[in-house]
Design brief:
By secondary structure, this protein is of the alpha/beta class. 22% of the residues lie in helices and 39% in strands. The chain folds into 2 domains: 74 residues, Barwin-like endoglucanases (Beta Barrel), CATH 2.40.40; 109 residues, no CATH class. The strands form 2 sheets. Strands 2, 3, 4, 5, 6, 7, 8, 9 and 10 form a 9-stranded mixed sheet that branches. A 6-stranded mixed beta barrel has the order 1-14-11-13-12-15. The structure holds zinc ion. Zinc ion (ZN) binds next to strand 11.
Length: 211
Amino acid sequence: MEALNSYQADRIVEAVVSQLKAKLMVEVEASGRHVHLCRQDVETLFGKGYQLTEVRELSQPGQFVCAERVTISGPKGSLHNVVILGPERSETQAEISMTDSLALGIKPPVRLSGDIDNTPGFTITVGDKSIVKDKGVIIAKRHMHITPEDAERLNVKDREALSIKVFGSRPVVFQDTIARVSKDFRTYVHIDYDEANACGFTKGTFCRIIR
Ligand SMILES: [Zn+2]
């Protein structure tokens, strides 16, 4: 067999590493602050019958980024140009980082998306239209979307709290990362921007489940 040159050897190593990553690790995505809106609030802010404009699909099937932006406000300040994620939900909510919550002057709990009972309210504004919500702000709890096949392979149960080591430029172990198993998901870990900055996240960062 002819000796490999250094270029060929590098390509082989890269291929093996990427296959091992896919088998042993899970890709991480960082979710920025965003809102989900109910039908009624879309109509109040944008007009009767208005349909939000999809501009980009997210990794989870059926979820998308909208072209429209909103301002969200609390007693201490506002965050402008906040992205709306579709599709519409049954209840309006805002998912922000802890740093954002300091800017707004509110103290939201850390929750999984959709779990908004007993959470602080906020104001949503688009142009001259505003809605005062009496609840709906959360700090998104980090979580792993995982398919049943990957869950079986990685020995993960639905709702299990996992410890994950995220291999950013300054690796961090995040405990209490909640697994959510569904055939409607694609396998990704979601962290917020505070967590992303803490671990030196860049696109293409992977993590490993440690037990
Ligand atoms: Zn998610």
